[in-house]
Design a protein that fits this description.
- This protein is an all-alpha fold.
- It has one domain.
- The protein has six helices and no strands.
- The protein is globular and about 70 Å long.
- The termini are far apart.
């Protein structure tokens, strides 16, 4: 009779790291979009390292756990932050022509479309995750509309909506950390 070996996953949950990288960076960028302070190196550094690299790491860890949704979401949004920072910097550094408003509309629209489909996938997950993705696809399309119309009012409104989106991800991340730490529901996620 052959013996079988069952491998038990004892690795940590990478989702809080990815959600915090996404959420905190999103809040900080959207405080800028709301018109409260200018785009500066703080936002760009967060985009490269916490919004970008931390989410990519979380995506790789989700892959190890066999989580296709987590792998796709965290790796994609981590690379979103990396591309966004480089879109801003490459034109400033003179490497390439700066992005046009039309190209940013296409960029933001496509990220919104991707996020809309990912939101559909969240309907099989908790309500808190559904809120994160729903508000994120709205954010991308508001930003695309703001660039398309040139409306500062739409961009500022998008900034406030983005602050809510980012904080919803921070909430979900901290709920997961607290709920797992205390092995009970400290913060509900639905």
């Amino acid at each position: 009779m052959a013996e079988s070996t069952q491998i038990v996953d004892t690795t940590a949950n990478p989702a809080p790291l990815g959600l915090l990288g996404f959420g905190m960076t999103t809040v900080l960028l959207n405080i800028h979009n709301a018109g409260i302070y200018p785009l500066d190196t703080m936002i760009l550094a967060m985009g490269i390292f916490y919004g970008g690299m931390a989410q990519i790491f979380a995506g790789w860890m989700e892959w190890k756990k066999g989580n296709t949704f987590g792998t796709t979401a965290f790796t994609s949004y981590g690379l979103f932050w990396e591309t966004l920072v480089f879109l801003i910097l490459m034109g400033k550094w003179g490497w390439f022509q700066a992005q046009s408003e039309a190209s940013m509309v296409a960029y933001l629209f496509m990220w919104g479309l991707f996020t809309f489909v990912m939101w559909i996938a969240t309907l099989k997950h908790n309500k808190a995750l559904q809120v994160v993705f729903f508000t994120l696809f709205i954010l991308f399309w508001l930003l695309a509309l703001g660039d398309y119309t040139g409306s500062a009012a739409i961009k500022h409104f998008a900034g406030w909506e983005g602050i809510f989106c980012g904080f919803s991800a921070v909430y979900l991340a901290l709920a997961q950390v607290l709920n797992e730490t205390y092995d009970k529901t400290v913060l509900p996620v639905g």
